[in-house]
């Protein structure tokens, strides 16, 4: 009986074991099948899902090219910035890592709190400890961007300074940030890329500047952060080209200072200045200032009016009208023109002069800016053939777009002859019922200064990679091979523009040693489609020196106020031109004439002390009858006490700031800028002090202020 029971128990155990074994085998088969299904059937799909969720191939931005001024000064560059992150998982790897973390986490939290000053040390500690506890492999510690020096400082924080980044967990995510070394200078012209808005050189030359992006694998760390996967880079980005503009930072500084001063004085709605080099068509400076209540000065650069704003040009347009009339009818400059009581009536329109002028000459029509005189002549020459006037304007490049390098720039709004009537012809001849940008107008005036030859304005000369010129934009610059008009007409036009300054509407800026020629313009403003009396757009366009022009300048100020007389270009924009031309002349050595003359008897009893430029020594000692000295090209400290003359050679050690105390402005700027220094001058006379002591080490683009009296 006992034997049977034992046999039954053995059978039961055997059956149960077999059953258990079968179940295990079945589970194993199911597991293997599912594993096979995951790996071989659904594997590619699942891998792609995971890969696309946490690891992606992303574009790697190329280093953006730099933008330079004409002398190689940086106007815009890309600087590396860094976001500070942390990989807390490295502190869970072993006992040593855990121990280091416990020893230094409080010190690290304190360092982070003191550095960023946005959270307490306790908050930083809790943030890091929580990420470590949850096994996170990335934690963004702060969203603020660090520069290179700050990065070096942070890398020395407790815990971060104990070894390699892979052991300390520190992560620096690199971000390229655009930086303008000269701040707001030429802000709208140099431009920017921001919130999908692209303006200025940055926007128009984005294709050249941005380079070719690369590709790489990135691991998703959190919602907005991706970190490169080491060894996963597939293609290296190709840096962008460097762009060389034609802007001169010294002239730009002169222009911005003068325009800001005028805008503050006359409280205009906006103001524009353009400086163009006459023979090359290169834009040396552009400034646009408009009212901005949020700016400390009340004005800022928010729109490029110089290029994009088109409006009635006013009296500055009388010059192309006069050039067309002189070409068509060969009018003598002394021919009388009757302007009557200063009013011209045509149909339901009346055009007036600023005051009755009676009978004046053709030359005085421009010199005195007579609306009536211009209309009388226009009716005489072109009333029966308005299309001929249109043809002249096309020849003068006043009908088509300039195709300027900074886009967009509007095409002039000028009616075609088929739509003309006599009213349109006469009103457009004095700058009404048409729209032109300041850049379009200065280009025409520049041709007059350039012996009649029109040259397309440019603001970018070349694009380079290292020392190689990849694109030479001057090669595609349009230059007329024939002048806009005959030499006879050009001579008359130039004579009238000079007369505007010497005896006409801008005679308040005459008397320079170099000479100015130009034209004033005062146009009524259009508001809601109507011309409003008392609201004006004032401008002055001219060139200097008058005999051999080097620069053409446009100054315009919209709706000047603040002074009873501040309604005409004579009071508002012409003086700004003079201030700019004076300062450019002082800084451009090539514009200066050599000293000539004899020393007055009164100086024989005087005491003089002056630092003498090498170019002036021969004149000083031969023409003025002073004792001769050997010339070796050195500067001299010239001292004269009555008849006693003492000369001390001066030397300026290399790579140091020269001593310019005692020099005039011309010599001081020449000396300092030859050392690569940037100069800001205050006052008139000779230099009495300089902001950086003589003998100090120089560095490129160091700004030095000098005081004259």
From TrEMBL:
Its main location: membrane. The chain crosses the membrane at residues 12-36. The keyword Protease applies. SMART domains: PASTA. Residues 652-709 form the PASTA domain. It comes from the Bacteria. Pfam families: PASTA, PBP_dimer, Transpeptidase. Keywords: Carboxypeptidase, Hydrolase, Membrane, Protease, Transmembrane, Transmembrane helix. It is found in: Membrane. InterPro entries: Beta-lactam/transpept, Beta-lactam/transpept-like, PASTA_dom, PBP_dimer, PBP_dimer_sf, PCN-bd_Tpept. This is Transpeptidase family protein.
